[in-house]
Design goal:
It is a single chain. The chain is α/β, with parallel strands linked by helices. Helix content is 33%, strand content 25%. A hairpin with a 2-residue loop joins strand 13 and strand 14.
């Protein structure tokens, strides 16, 4: 069996998730398309890189991500850094002929996304963007029902991504609040997941009407370089300016004519990782809540009137990816399983030299949606979504 050598850049939370998935992918999808070999991991200092290499089971660590690009044995460059490094690393990897998997969002700006897309297209390397929530079996089952026409023509929809980790003004000034590093706030960090999910299910977006808000203007400056999100209080030290959005609300018209809304906020007390969608068609409805990710709620208009209503389908072996995961429905799908599915699709694409989705083109399209959303938030008007061309 072929072995693909991996160089991972960035040693934080996402490095843990990816490292677990590299180990788990061949266990779940056997025989695997190829065996991952976790060769080298990069971080900002040699000490942190060496610690990460031990913790995440890589052969070695390096403080220079360029070492990974220059290594002729590396097949895959895995980008798990903050957003400001995505473009430079991805473009260098593409020019070196490496296949690339990159955490979302693709970049900070539309221009960076365009350059990344053009680089991988020119190089002809396999590229994947990590919108792993769409890999949840229940989401894939919803896609199957929609493709089959099970709920008829789509009329309207709503999607949410609600969190509360930054609702406390004492939570520290993560890089996710600094525009030069993240590019945007709630939109880029979490709304893009819902945008990707609904684009996957319903097709391209045509027009956007948006509202953006920043509720907490300053936060305690974080000590150290490790992103602490909302897990600690910032204390009484110096405070820094929040430069990005805390909340966004989008009204959306799709290219197919459906109408809907997307809401994302990191200031919703009581909500942890509340990703939902509800889709209404002429012949039924679908509802999904990621916090109950083994379940898809379905209602079909063809059911007799005395038993029509939402029913729960628990995903398992009969559903997408089910045979590779657990032997009975509702045994439990977690975050790691979505990353395992993601890596299986990526490795399959690399070995068999075929496209994979979501990719950098999807990321570029989502940046075009973001551009329209921020423009609308300023103008107060509906704005058309640009196209790649």
């Amino acid at each position: 069996m072929k072995t693909l050598h991996v160089g991972l850049i960035g040693a934080g939370f996402m490095a843990k998730a990816h490292s677990l998935a590299y180990d788990g992918m061949p266990m779940c999808f056997w025989p695997a398309p190829a065996m991952p070999h976790k060769k080298v991991i990069a971080d900002l200092s040699q000490e942190r890189a060496d610690t990460a290499a031990m913790q995440f089971r890589f052969d070695k660590g390096t403080a220079n991500w360029q070492d990974i690009i220059r290594d002729p044995e590396i097949d895959i460059v895995d980008i798990c850094t903050p957003n400001d490094a995505h473009a430079e690393i991805a473009i260098a990897a593409a020019e070196a002929g490496k296949h690339i998997i990159c955490e979302k969002p693709i970049s900070r700006t539309l221009n960076e996304a365009k350059k990344m897309y053009e680089a991988v297209k020119k190089a002809g390397v396999v590229n994947m963007l990590c919108f792993n929530y769409r890999m949840t079996p229940a989401v894939q089952l919803a896609k199957k029902y929609l493709a089959e026409g099970s709920i008829g023509d789509i009329l309207d929809f709503r999607g949410t991504y609600l969190q509360d980790w930054s609702a406390d003004p004492a939570s520290p000034l993560s890089w996710r609040f600094q525009k030069a590093i993240c590019g945007s706030g709630a939109f880029g960090d979490i709304a893009t997941h819902v945008v990707d999910m609904l684009r996957f299910l319903l097709g391209d977006f045509a027009e956007i009407n948006a509202r953006m808000a920043t509720y907490i203007k300053e936060r305690p400056v974080q000590s150290g370089s490790i992103d602490k999100l909302g897990t600690v209080k910032g204390g009484d030290g110096p405070r820094g300016k929040v430069e990005v959005d805390d909340q966004c609300c989008l009204c959306v018209k799709t290219a197919s004519g459906a109408f809907g809304t997307i809401e994302a906020t990191r200031n919703a007390w009581g909500r942890n990782n509340y990703i939902t969608f509800e889709i209404h068609g002429t012949q039924g409805s679908l509802y999904f809540n990621y916090e109950r990710r083994d379940e898809l709620q379905v209602c079909f208009a063809s059911d007799p009137g005395d038993r029509r209503g939402f029913r729960t389908v628990y995903t398992g072996p009969a559903h997408p990816y089910g045979e590779a995961l657990w032997p009975i429905p509702a045994l439990g799908i977690g975050y790691t399983e979505t990353k395992i599915v993601e890596l299986h699709k990526f490795f399959d694409a690399v070995v068999n030299k075929k496209p994979v989705s979501p990719d950098f083109e999807d990321g570029y399209n989502i940046e075009l949606i973001g551009e329209a959303a921020f423009k609308s938030a300023e103008s107060g008007r509906w704005e058309k979504v640009g196209t790649i061309g």
